[in-house]
């Protein structure tokens, strides 16, 4: 199965790792996962700090090697909210609750282009100890760590 995911992956954290692990689980042992990493205008203007693209990609690569996923993965830069998901052939897209709208839009664009829609698989946010979603912004602001532990 060909699966895609996308994001900024600013500070690689427990929630990102869960998303990545789920994507590889769904793709299966013979599948491939395409990881779209936001670049350029796709970066959220409300983010206070975004690590350089190469740093974010290198952190992803380290995690893929650690989990032995590297041979079944492709990392690509994405320059808009659709990335390569509209043009390329994928079976599924894995999203969080905050990005399901983008996946629906991607499928609409795919249908317009004569492509079959992808299965949209929504996974839950991973919550920190304070029961709020783990996010790079909250880690950057030193509210939580990468595992969701509240900082004092």
Write a concise keyword list for the protein shown above.
single chain; 152 residues; alpha/beta; Rossmann fold; five-stranded parallel beta sheet; globular
Describe the overall structure.
The chain is α/β, with parallel strands linked by helices. It has a single domain (2-140), classed as Rossmann fold, CATH 3.40.50. Helix content is 30%, strand content 18%. It has four helices and five strands; from the N terminus they run βαβαββαβα. It has helices at residues 14-27, 53-66, 100-112, 136-140, and strands at residues 2-7, 32-38, 73-78, 92-95, 119-122. It has a five-stranded parallel sheet with strand order 3-2-1-4-5, with helices on both faces. α3 (100-112) links the parallel β4 (92-95) and β5. The longest helix has 14 residues, at 14-27. The chain is globular. It starts with a strand and ends in a 12-residue tail after the last helix. The model has no long low-confidence stretch (mean pLDDT 93).
């Amino acid at each position: 199965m060909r699966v895609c995911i996308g994001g900024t992956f600013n500070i690689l954290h427990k929630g990102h790792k869960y998303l990545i692990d789920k994507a590889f689980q769904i793709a299966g042992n013979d599948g491939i996962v395409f990881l779209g990493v936001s670049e350029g205008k796709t970066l959220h203007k409300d983010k206070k700090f975004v690590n350089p693209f190469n740093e974010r990609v290198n952190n992803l690569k380290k995690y893929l090697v650690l989990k032995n996923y590297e041979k079944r993965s492709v990392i690509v830069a994405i320059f808009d909210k659709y990335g390569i998901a509209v043009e390329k052939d994928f079976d599924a897209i894995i999203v969080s609750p905050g990005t399901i709208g983008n996946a629906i839009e991607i499928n609409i664009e795919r249908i317009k282009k004569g492509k079959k829609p992808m299965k949209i698989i929504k996974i839950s946010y991973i919550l920190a100890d304070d029961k709020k979603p783990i996010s790079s912004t909250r880690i950057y602001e030193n509210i939580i760590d990468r595992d969701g532990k509240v900082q004092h």
